[in-house]
């Protein structure tokens, strides 16, 4: 009975280039994951520090707190950046998992389509909420408005 042998290249030798030069999409994805991960750590810990540690902690988080916070363009931008980076970072990670574990091109295409649709819908709706949020809408019943809406 003949035995087949598999030769494993010496890891210290250089591989021949495939002809592709520069960055490809997977390399850009890898770089994005590292950069966005570092930025997300800063954004999330800043968010937790301001919302939970300063002042009265979790007890003060209510509708009025969010309304007051989102009245500032700084916090709108902070939360928007955190939303976009988290959704794109997480979506890119799930895309990688789909590429690794989904067998068959049609299943992979279907899962990626669902992933992209969910990510886009969440980003669009989250962005709309952040920029259109008004804790004191004109013409609302004053008894239903939070305490920050005193005229």
TrEMBL record:
The chain crosses the membrane at residues 31-54, 74-92, 113-133. Its main location: membrane. InterPro entries: SQR/QFR_C/D, SuccDH_FuR_B_TM-su. Keywords: Heme, Iron, Membrane, Metal-binding, Transmembrane, Transmembrane helix. Pfam families: Sdh_cyt. It is found in: Membrane. This is Succinate dehydrogenase hydrophobic membrane anchor subunit.
